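Propose amino acids for all 702 sites.
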């Protein structure tokens, strides 16, 4: 067994920032290859962790190989049969022997290998075993040529690391280089974790962890090492979030506790009582707003759970307390809808509401901005036009961000930056599994609307193929005859807005002229001007349009209770959360609602799973979990959450329990030392700053 941790420390520690090209044996060509992998410095290399390890302590005898098994074995080349001339599609077959018998290995596109291999060479092979014409064949294996016996301990007879490769850089020299780097430098990596934390959480030292992650002695050592590195990932994330959060709670914010007469009037004007969940959540928000520190709260509730009215109560509270409130939505259509809703709710109480979007005419925009800056406009609803430069508030007290998963951390922060520590309420309908909520929203308090308004009937979801189109149209017609309305939605076609638009336009025309000539068919898409969108949405809400054909612009937030059918064309092209959002556009009234997922052609396995998940459950949390499993955390978050640091080792799905531990540790550390000024935390602080790359802006004085 090998350990790099045992040697005595040298006096002058080698610099981890040393460029790899300065290492002996790394020429310009190799340096360039490494650079293609993102490896510039020794530190990069140390954290360039293997894809997997192969257990070469247990090489399988040729005689014991079983078809179907994935095995690692080793043998000497006794014969080569390259593809016959003119049959370049045939594989290269290599005959091998070991002490127990014979086996074959085969490679397609083996012309290059035919020149590399010679008789008498020893190979280590890793691949799937099959039986072909009576012979045992290892197909398309990873291979390594064993050059001499002295590097056996590195490349065979142990848990051998396998790295991701790049053109021209084979496994073996890369592994040799990694061995040298780990051997020379791992012990000099500064330990960032306080001793107490390491002991409490039973974590190995960082140098040992790095060494074992590359060249572990045993499976157990590898697992222990991985756990340590994953803990670091989580801890650095949670520390950053804890710092952000503690700054919020320590900052002096605005204290808004008006008498609440306006709120009482608004509540009295509603045609229904708040649900118990709405009452609870509103109470949490009200307390936050009354407290002297800034609110920083996430309101999470499945589509249709009634977040908007809660936001309206908060807005009214801010206004009653003499402050301004801003509500930001991700699309113009949603901003427009909120504008109408808020106007309906607030203007009877004497609170004017204005709208601010990018598509306003310059003169109007300037006038509205002036109203905000002068403090004459108490409430504004808008898109990200709200966070643009030049938008100023006189007294911003509350910032609300709707469908916040559509915004980045940055935009959220920018809106908040328009005031002096205003209260922040972010809302999302994307229900997020707890582990992810901790990661994404570790700097927020969370309120959950876990109840739908009464009387809602669950939406029935049906998967259909093209052959059922006529029946679907008949169904639409019946629903409309009953007084309902329908959406027909088209996906984005390969990110091309023009094609997307054409598909929707063609469909709208066909539906209007051929299929439903007696009905009113409207068309909604992102290219329409503000007034056109506005007019169409109004007509749909008023029931003047029976069928609204749309691109995905109506995906989030739209609220028309009378609509009872959502027909999604090419449903296979949508992601799960999108489908769930689209489905959430119906089932908002007392009628039975249906979501039809129309697919065409052969579906990929993943598409089938998405459709199956939609049909089997209406539960947003379940949908989110399946989505996370199918896509993995990186994709699940999309690029919009790019404000957070990357993980090197941790896996949110696999290491969820560890995340909890790291979070508790982070909270304890920050509670005792909010800005990490304690000298004992110096290394931790340095790691934190490096990992968050300036996004944390810790005061630099130590
Ligand atoms: P979301 O949480 O998806 O944003 P909305 O705020 O758009 O949901 O609310 C969905 C619909 O439910 C709206 O038409 C709203 O008027 C209605 N609603 C909200 N709260 C209640 C309630 N307590 N009782 C009945 N209907 C409600
Ligand atoms: Mg909403």
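Proposal:
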């Amino acid at each position: 067994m090998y350990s790099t941790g045992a040697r005595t420390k040298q006096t002058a520690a080698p610099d981890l920032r040393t460029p790899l090209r300065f290492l002996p044996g790394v020429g310009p060509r190799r340096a360039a290859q490494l650079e293609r992998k993102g490896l510039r410095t020794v530190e990069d290399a140390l954290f360039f962790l293997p894809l997997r390890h192969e257990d070469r302590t247990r090489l399988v005898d040729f005689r014991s190989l079983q078809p179907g098994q994935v095995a690692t074995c080793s043998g000497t080349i006794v014969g080569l049969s390259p593809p016959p001339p003119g049959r370049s599609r045939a594989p290269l077959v290599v005959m091998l022997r070991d002490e127990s018998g014979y086996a074959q290995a085969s490679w397609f596109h083996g012309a290059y290998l035919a020149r590399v291999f010679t008789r008498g060479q020893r190979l280590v092979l890793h691949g799937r075993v099959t039986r072909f014409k009576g012979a045992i064949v290892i197909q398309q294996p990873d291979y390594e040529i064993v050059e001499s016996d002295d590097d056996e301990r590195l490349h065979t007879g142990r848990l051998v690391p396998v790295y991701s490769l790049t053109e021209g850089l084979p496994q073996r020299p890369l592994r040799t280089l990694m061995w040298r780097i780990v051997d020379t430098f791992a012990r000099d990596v500064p330990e960032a974790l306080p001793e107490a934390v390491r002991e409490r959480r039973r974590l190995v030292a960082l140098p040992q962890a790095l060494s074992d992650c590359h060249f572990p002695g045993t499976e157990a050592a590898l697992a222990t090492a991985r756990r340590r590195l994953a803990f670091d990932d989580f801890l650095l994330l949670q520390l950053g979030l804890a710092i952000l959060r503690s700054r919020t709670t320590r900052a002096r914010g605005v204290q808004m506790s008006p008498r609440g007469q306006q709120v009482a009037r608004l509540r009295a004007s509603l045609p229904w009582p708040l649900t118990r969940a709405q009452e609870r959540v509103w109470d949490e928000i009200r307390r936050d707003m009354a407290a002297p520190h800034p609110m920083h709260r996430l309101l999470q509730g499945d589509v249709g759970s009634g977040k908007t009215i809660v936001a309206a109560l908060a807005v009214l509270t801010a206004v009653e307390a003499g402050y301004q409130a801003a509500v930001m939505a991700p699309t113009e259509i949603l901003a427009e809808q909120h504008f109408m809703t808020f106007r309906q709710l607030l203007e009877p109480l004497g609170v004017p509401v204005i709208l601010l979007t990018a598509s306003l005419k310059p003169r109007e925009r300037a006038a509205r901005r002036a109203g905000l800056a002068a403090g004459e406009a108490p409430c504004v609803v808008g898109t990200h036009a709200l966070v643009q430069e030049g938008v100023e508030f006189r007294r911003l007290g509350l910032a609300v961000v709707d469908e916040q998963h559509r915004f980045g951390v940055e935009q959220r922060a920018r809106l908040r930056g328009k005031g002096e520590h205003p209260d922040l309420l972010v809302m999302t309908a994307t229900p997020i599994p707890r582990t992810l909520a901790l990661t994404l929203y570790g700097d927020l308090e969370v309120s959950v609307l876990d109840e739908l308004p009464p009387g809602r009937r669950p939406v029935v979801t049906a998967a259909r193929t093209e052959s059922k189109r006529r029946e679907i149209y008949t169904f639409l017609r019946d629903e409309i005859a009953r007084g309902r309305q329908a959406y027909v939605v088209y996906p984005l076609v390969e990110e091309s807005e023009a094609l997307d638009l054409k598909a929707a336009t063609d469909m709208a025309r066909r539906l209007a002229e051929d299929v439903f000539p007696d009905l009113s068919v409207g068309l909604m898409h992102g290219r329409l001007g503000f007034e056109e969108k506005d007019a169409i949405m109004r007509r749909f809400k008023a029931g003047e349009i029976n069928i609204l054909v749309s691109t995905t612009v109506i995906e989030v937030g739209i609220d028309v209770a009378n609509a009872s059918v959502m027909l999604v064309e090419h449903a296979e092209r949508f992601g799960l959360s999108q489908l769930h959002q689209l489905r959430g556009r119906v089932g908002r009234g007392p009628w039975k609602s249906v979501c039809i997922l129309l697919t065409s052609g052969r579906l990929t396995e993943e598409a089938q799973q998405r459709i199956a998940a939609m049909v089997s459950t209406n539960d947003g949390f379940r949908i989110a979990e399946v989505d996370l499993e199918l896509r993995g955390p990186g994709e699940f978050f999309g690029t919009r959450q790019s404000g957070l640091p990357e993980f090197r080792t941790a896996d949110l799905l696999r290491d969820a329990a560890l995340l909890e531990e790291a979070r508790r540790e982070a909270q304890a550390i920050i509670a005792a030392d909010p800005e990490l000024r304690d000298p004992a935390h110096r290394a931790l602080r340095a790691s934190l700053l490096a990992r968050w790359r300036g996004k944390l802006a810790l005061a630099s004085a130590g």
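Residues 1-11, 638-642 have pLDDT under 50 and may be disordered. Residues 303 and 429 are 5 Å apart (CA to CA).
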